[in-house]
Automatic annotation (TrEMBL):
This is Fructose-1,6-bisphosphatase class 1. Residues 188-321 form the Fructose-1-6-bisphosphatase class 1 C-terminal domain. Mg(2+) 1 binds at residues 84, 103, 105. The gene is fbp. It comes from Sulfurivirga caldicuralii. GO terms for molecular function: fructose 1,6-bisphosphate 1-phosphatase activity; magnesium ion binding.
């Protein structure tokens, strides 16, 4: 039975990086515990507040954020944190080498209906000096990530982790309170016949996305020549996990509902970590026009269109964008 720390040591992760990951996992175990209690712990429902992005916060968005923030501030290796649920970056320890960005609870519309949610995280090295509340330190492209992962809180809690040496799955053994290795070197099948997109936004998409989905729906008779299945869990963590297990393509493209927004999903908390994981697992990730991890962020809460999953299918969507 191999634990996360043993795999990290084997893969040559430094003591400092292992410490940061282990602190994140302490927080995730606490969140998993609270989720499993649900209504009993009085943690369901919404707060009276909105986050900086104008979204109503669920009680568990706030609780999960506080759990992770509190634990990460205790690790001397963490310089600062940025979270979907914090207005600004937060300083931790001035000598810390690492910056952590996270979406404490992803898919939060699923909480009250007892469906899958997750925590997504990404770790960057702080370049140069400066307090961890300096936003500029965080504005690094996804290519600089030294680790990324998520915990899917489903029937079991599963950690998916990469430090740039492939992607491994770990399952939380609640008897011993540890994540143990359950699948190594995950590789997403290159081809797929399964797509995931919120179809209710169809009329707001750009033409390349309209064309691609319309061709998927035409099945064997259409230009793509295959019959597709569709899934939409409304929880990116669950969606990406399904793709890692059996292939598929996930899309949250730009749409004209709010033309000023580049997309719904966030670059630093969702786009970059998921792209790192997917690319490390033989997949591909793009906005449709450029690799997500090549984007130079200009602000921490920046949004991005996301298309990721099975390599050949993602490249097909990229071709639709090139051809207009
Ligand atoms: O409600 P929609 O439009 O289906 O959007 C679902 C998407 O929004 C998200 O829930 C956004 O994440 P948060 O719950 O962290 O805001 C993704 O997990 C999911 O893919
Ligand atoms: Mg999210
Ligand atoms: Mg969230």
């Amino acid at each position: 039975m191999l634990r996360v720390d043993e795999i990290l040591r084997r893969d040559g992760a430094s003591d400092e990086l292992r410490s940061v990951i282990n602190h994140i996992l302490v927080g995730c175990k606490e969140i998993a515990h609270k989720l499993s209690q649900g209504e009993l712990a009085g943690i369901l429902g919404s707060t009276e507040t909105e986050n900086v992005q104008g979204e109503t916060q669920k009680k568990l968005d706030v609780i999960s954020n506080d759990v992770l923030k509190h634990i990460l501030k205790q690790d001397p290796n963490v310089r600062g944190i940025a979270s979907e649920e914090e207005d600004n970056t937060v300083a931790a320890n001035d000598d810390g080498k690492y910056l952590v960005t996270f979406d404490p609870l992803d898919g939060s519309s699923n909480i009250d209906v007892n469906l899958s949610v997750g925590t997504i995280f990404s770790i960057l090295e702080a370049q140069g000096e400066g307090s961890g509340d300096n936003m500029e330190l965080f504005l690094q492209s996804g290519r600089n990530q030294v680790a990324a992962g998520y915990v899917l809180y489903g029937p079991s809690a599963i950690l998916v982790l990469t430090t740039g040496k492939g992607v491994n799955f770990f399952t939380l053994d609640r008897h011993i309170g540890e994540f143990v290795l359950t699948k190594e070197k995950v590789c997403i099948p290159e081809d797929t016949k399964e797509f995931a997109i919120n179809m209710s936004n169809q009329r707001f998409w750009e033409k390349p996305m309209q064309d691609y989905i319309s061709h998927c729906l035409q099945g064997e008779e259409g230009p793509l020549g295959k019959r597709y299945n569709m899934r939409w869990v409304a929880s990116m963590v669950a969606e990406v996990h399904r793709i890692l297990v059996r292939g598929g393509i996930f899309m949250y493209p730009w749409d004209s509902r709010d033309p000023g927004k580049a997309g719904k999903l966030r670059l630093m908390y969702e786009g970059n970590p998921m792209s790192f994981i997917v690319e490390q697992a033989c997949g591909r990730s793009t906005t449709g026009r450029e690799d997500i991890m090549d984007i130079q962020p200009t602000e921490i809460h920046q949004r991005v269109p996301v298309v990721l999953g099975s390599k050949n299918e993602v490249e097909t969507v990229m071709r639709y964008h090139q051809e207009g």
